Amino acid sequence: MILMLAGTSDARELAVMIQQAGYSVTATVVTDHAAEQLRSSGIRAYVGRMDASQLAELAKAEGAKAIVDASHPFAEEASKNAMQAAAVAGLPYIRYERQASSLSFEKVTFVDSYEEAAELAAKKGGVVMLTTGSKTLDIFAAKLLNRPNVKVIARMLPRKDNLDKCERLGFSQEQIVMMQGRLPKSSTGRCTAISASRSSSRKKAAKLGLWMRKSPPPRSSASRSSSSAARGCHTASCTTILPACLSR
Fold it and tell me: Is 110 helix (H, G, I), strand (E, B) or coil?
């Protein structure tokens, strides 16, 4: 059995591919909607955030032979927990990464932190669309809300906790877009779009935008401290990497 952290739109496709390759798959997700999608494809799914010890216990209870980390690119804590769980359980750790995309448009600006992105957006002014998620929303709210020259629009997944946070921070209804991705190219219009990237998981930027560069968590250190094998894969290669890892 393969234990998978499923946190992206690609995770369901990956889980199905692994299952079709002859492996049973159990997934962990953080929303009921994600669990329903996986279960509709015949994938067992547990709902709820798990720390490293809980993941290790689940892997042991399910008889997992490997942990595949297909968590969201921004979910650094989830990746760290998965690496620690693999190390504790003595299992191979395989990280799924989306294919890298190249950004060469002259109006894309790279910054190193959410704070720097917010400060540059405040100086630029105009319409600012946030696609960085709810965890860092307070950073942008503090620097961008109530500025006369800035209109902030926050795009969030359609969940009640996200809506509650937007309202608590002072976003009005016309400043909130609750949409499940992927968004059409025309949806951003002409605005400053702020998104985040982690290493090879960059999304395509809007034509006018800031881009925040984030470093990936140190995946190798947790995995290499035990017999676990740390490997990276894309969708097409995971079914090839799995047999190699499981044969060790």
Answer: strand
| Nearest residue to 66 via CA among 108, 120, 3, 109 | 3
- The whole-angstrom separation of Cα 235 and Cα 54 is 26
Helix (H, G, I), strand (E, B) or coil at 83: helix
Q: Name the band, by pLDDT with cuts 50, 70 and 90, for residue 219.
A: very low
Which among 150, 164, 163, 155 is positioned nearest to 194, based on CA atoms? 155
pLDDT for the residue 127 = 93
Distance of CA 240 to the CA centre of its chain: 23
Assess contact for 13 and 40: CB atoms under 8 A. no
Cα atoms in the 13 Å half-sphere on the side-chain side of 97: 19
Distance (Å, rounded) from C-alpha 169 to C-alpha 107? 30
Report residue 157 as tokens.
Answer: 């997944």
**Cβ pair 121, 128 in contact under 8 A:** yes
Contact 76, 217 (CB under 8 A): yes
